[in-house]
Structures are given as C-alpha cells and as structure tokens.
Amino acid sequence: MMSATTSQSVQRESWDGDTAASGRLLQPGLDVTHGQILYLDDISVSFDGFRALNRLSLSIAVGELRCIIGPNGAGKTTMMDVITGKTRADSGSAFFGQTINLAQHSEAEIAQLGIGRKFQKPTVFEAMTVQENLELALAGPRSVWASLRARLTGQQRDRIDELLTLIRLGEQRQRLAGLLSHGQKQWLEIGMLLAQEPQLLLLDEPVAGMTDAETEKTAELLLTLKGRHSLMVVEHDMDFIASIAGKVTVLAEGAVLAEGSLQQVQADERVIEVYLGR
Amino acid sequence: MQSALSLRLAHRIGPLPLKLAGAAALAVLLAMPALHLWTDPASSLHVSAYTLTLVGKILCYAIVALAMDLVWGYTGLLSLGHGLFFALGGYGMGMYLMRAIGHDGNYQSDLPDFMVFLDWKTLPWFWQGSEHLAWALCLAVGVPGLLALVFGWLAFRSRIKGVYFSIMTQALTYAAMLLFFRNETGFGGNNGFTDFKRILGYGIAEPATRATLFLLTVLLLVAALAAGFWLVNSKFGRILTAIRDAESRLMFCGYNPLYYKLFIWVASAMLCGLAGALYVPQVGIINPGEMSPANSIEIAIWVAVGGRGSLIGPVLGAGFINAAKSWFTVAFPEYWLFFLGALFIATTLFLPRGLLGLLRRHKENA
C-alpha cells in the first residue's frame, strides 16, 4: 500500500487520543496547534434569497474521517464550495489550520495549500490516459514555464505506480480515462486528489454509482487514508458510512443538526424527522 | 465526453501515411518557387505568378488556421475575432511597404499618398520608425500580441467563456474594423494600403521577390507546425486540453487556468500577426475588410472542416476551402457563400472530426 514516507504522513498515534502530540506542523505554513485542520465558523451563504448555509459552524480534527449526511438541499455541496473557494461566504469565516483564511484565496491557491476535492459527478480528463491524469495532478510547480519544461522524474514515476496500485487501476494505466467505468473514474479522481498530496480531502459522494464490491473497496481505501490525511466525506449510502465512520455530522437547512456516532445520530428524533419528512 | 474522445482520436491519426503525404506536399511547395523562376513560361511545368501568389496566400491562411486551432481545438476558446490579429499584422507590414514607396507615389511626396490626400503635413507619431522593416515586423507581431494580452487578461480574469467569449471577440474585430474605416485613424481609411512598389529595395512583383516571400511562408508554416507539435505534446499541451474538457477539475488540481489561456491566446495572436505580415506583400493590399466578422468566422470554418484538435486538420481545411473558394468565385460567384454554409452544416452533422476524421475512417474501413 501507500508508503509512509510521503511528506504529510505523520504517525497515526499522534492524533489518536493525544491532541498535544499533533502540535507538530504537517507542512510548513500550516499551523494545526489546536489539533483542528478546518474551522468553519458561523458561515452563511444565500443564493437569490435562498439560504443555502445558515450560520454553519463545524470543525474537522487532524487525521479525522468525518462523514456528512443530510437530506437534499441541506447545504453539503455549498459547504464544500465555500471551503474550496468556489463560492464566497456572505458572512462567517473559514480557516485552514489556525492561520490560513480561505476567503482570501482562489480555488487554485486553496488546492495548492493542501485541500483536495472530489466532485459529486466524477470528473477526470477524459481525453487523457489514466497515467496522464495522475501526472497532471502530481504535486509540484504549477506555472506555465514549469509545464513547458516538465519531465517526469524517477521519483514521480514511482509515485504514480504507487497510486495506480492504491486505486487498483494499474492495468488501465494506458487507457483513456473516458473509457473507464463509472466506479473506476471515481477511483481515478480519488487517485488524482492523492497525487496532489493534500492535507484535507473533501469527497462528495465517492461511492455513488459503484457496485457493492467497489463500494467495499472504496471503504477500505478511505480507512487506509484516515490518519495520514484528514477526510470529509459526503454520502447518502448509510451502509457505506457505517463501514467507515467515526463521527457523523448531520446537516439540515444549511446548519448542523446533530453530531456524533452513526448510532447516536440515527437515534436522534430531529434527524429522523428531517429524513422522514414532515 | 464523446467530443473529447474523438478529438483525441483525431490527434492519433496513423503517422506513417500522413508523414509521407506531408513530405510530398512539402516537396511540391518547395519546388513551386523554383518552377516559377527557372522554367519557361510556355512549359507545362511552369508555375505562374498567379498560382504562386494564390498558394502563398492560402499558406498564410493555413498558418492562421493553425493558430486558431491552438486556442479553439486544444483549449476550447472559440475566437470569432482572429481575423483582427491577422489584419493588424498585415497593417504593420503595410506601413513599411507604404513608406518604401518613397517618392514614387502619385503625389511624389515623402508621405504616403493617402496622407497627402488628407492634407497632412507630417507623419503621425505611430508611423515613426516604420521605414525600417525590422520595426514594422516588431509592430506586426507586437501589436496583435499586446492587444491579445490586454483583452485576454480582462476576459480570462473575469472567467468569460463559451459563447460570451466568442461574441466579445467578434465585437472586438467589428469595432476595430469601424475604427480602421475612418480616415482620421491614419491607416488609409476604407482603401487601406496598396500600390506597393518594393520591399528592401527589391521590386515587389519581381519573380525572385515573389519566390522568396513564398519560401518564407512555407518555412513559417513548417516552423509553426513543429512548434505546435512540441507544444501540444508537452505537459503544457495536456493542460490546455484539460482546460477544454474539465476546467474546474484543473483548478481544483491547483492550476490557475488564467495564465495558460493567456499564454496560448497571445502566442496564437502573434502567429496570426506574422502570417498577416507575409500575406500583405504577396497579395499587394490590406484594407479594413480583413477585419470584418465574416472573415473571422471563415477562419473558424476552416478549422472545423479540417478537423479541430489536430494540427494537420486546420492546415488541410484552410487549403481545401480556399482552393474551392478561388474556383467557385470564378465559376459560380453568387453561390459561394451558400456552398460554404452548406459545407459547414454538413461538417457539423456528418464529420465532427472534420476532413481528418474522414481520412481516418477511410483507413479504418480499409
């Protein structure tokens, strides 16, 4: 599986239980002294009078795998848009680590700072091969000049091989990404996220359209990532969530409705109410 | 998705037959100026001045089509104003050619005839230095480049894309045409520049001058193709297709599409300018009609018919359509635009990969 020598891999023990130990920096510039990698505080977003997010506050701990559930229109995708710079919050603040104010950065900058995002609909570069997709996503300089002179180093090749094994697409490396199955595209997109070596991964419905076997393998994959990366997963598939989740956050009408283990939130009266309708 | 894939397939057309055909075409093109210069005009091998000029003109169009394809076929930015960059390059060269007329104009003045006609006493400031070919070439490349830089920066930074971008480029070339139609703008109004006499002291209509300009055009086309191949096969080229196919994915990979778009957009405009600079001495005229929106739309049609997303396709498209045009406008002048429109519709319906896609399909069936 993935080697433990990637730049952001810090021993898992550091965050399990002992938050003080996670005071070390994950990467220069990212300050996680309080053990939280993402803080959303009192965020509101409106579109033409519709309140997509209503004073939402949420935080994610370093190395955590957090599941977000909620009925349609609860604001899950809008929340990811705010974190990744696609949508600007009307009020409230979003911080990456202690010091980086996400509102001050563009989408591309936020990606470079270490937040990777998988879209709801799998989005890969269909006219390129699987390997070329990963090459493009590999961490490294992003300037025009660098792209004109880019040559793959041996180290980068190894990294691509490693990722291909991890996402189980080793056999497909020379295939055009547009010819992959839906589930394989989902994996490729996850592989591209990992190639960026992000600290925080946002996954919007990673198992939508996958077969049961594929879903199971994706759960395994996410569990191996937990600890090395912080993950935020939006899903509707409750069995999948049960197989990966530690903590679950329920969103409804743009705000946090409940938070806790899956059993706890499933037993919560208010959660049952928003899901079963009024 | 289908279109992205088919573009990729068009790009991967069988290399060997294509290379052979390309080599043969290049050999013919290189032989043409020699046949013009050194064969007896009565001989069946002789290439007339008319043919040489016509082919030279079409080669200039082919370079423009190639430049257009880099921004449209590869990057997905449909420009309907590329004729403007071409015309500006032509005007840059035209300024030099007007100055090179010297005292041989109708009014035997130091100033170009149209300025005498307007009763101007001195050269406008922007004409300073235009008596030097080197400076005129700098203008021919630099002005389209600068205009593209400013326009592109504003448009791409505001994330204008799709049909809005196309409409704005169309408006830009239209506005420039109206500006150049005015006499006061200082570029000869609706007559533009013509009646050139010489270039670097050589008579503009002499066979050797024609042959040299033709050869330079062939060289520029070959150099542009080579640079294009290198560019689209580099990581940079893959980023361009990524912008075309999934721009937001690319942004969330940490790339800022702005600089990539700007780079290829400006490079494309400069290449058009250079093509325009070679076009004007060969055809002997430049006027604001070159900036008309219809001209720019025609450029897009060359690329679509030839096959966008491949470098050879647009060159074939420009060659095929302009060859057809020069025959049609003699045989049935009033039906040319109907034919062009029908061709475009037929291409869109039946040949999404253009002529190049047709060649490929033929090969698959064989």
From TrEMBL, chain A:
Keyword Nucleotide-binding: yes
The keyword Disulfide bond is annotated on this UniProt entry: no
Native organism: Aquitalea aquatica
Gene Ontology CC annotation, any one: plasma membrane
Domain of life: Bacteria
Transmembrane intervals: none
Keyword list, A-Z: ATP-binding, Nucleotide-binding, Transport
Listed PROSITE patterns: ABC_TRANSPORTER_2
Gene behind the chain: urtD
Pfam families per record: ABC_tran (PF00005), BCA_ABC_TP_C (PF12399)
PANTHER family in UniProt: CONSERVED COMPONENT OF ABC TRANSPORTER FOR NATURAL AMINO ACIDS-RELATED, HIGH-AFFINITY BRANCHED-CHAIN AMINO ACID TRANSPORT ATP-BINDING PROTEIN
One term of GO molecular function: ATP hydrolysis activity
Record-annotated ABC transporter domain positions: 38-278
Name this protein carries in UniProt: Urea ABC transporter ATP-binding protein UrtD
TrEMBL record, chain B:
Keywords: Cell membrane, Membrane, Transmembrane, Transmembrane helix
Primary localisation category: membrane
UniProt xrefs under InterPro entries: ABC_transp_permease, ABC_transptr_urea_perm_UrtC, LivM-like
TM ranges: 20-38, 50-72, 84-102, 133-156, 163-181, 211-232, 258-279, 299-323, 335-356
Record carries keyword Membrane: yes
GO CC annotations on file: plasma membrane
Membrane topology: Multi-pass membrane protein
GO molecular function per UniProt: branched-chain amino acid transmembrane transporter activity
Cellular compartments annotated: Cell membrane
Record has Membrane as a keyword: yes
Pfam families in UniProt: BPD_transp_2
NCBIfam families membership: urea_trans_UrtC (TIGR03408)
PANTHER family membership: HIGH-AFFINITY BRANCHED-CHAIN AMINO ACID TRANSPORT SYSTEM PERMEASE, SLR1201 PROTEIN
Protein name: Urea ABC transporter permease subunit UrtC
Organism name: Aquitalea aquatica
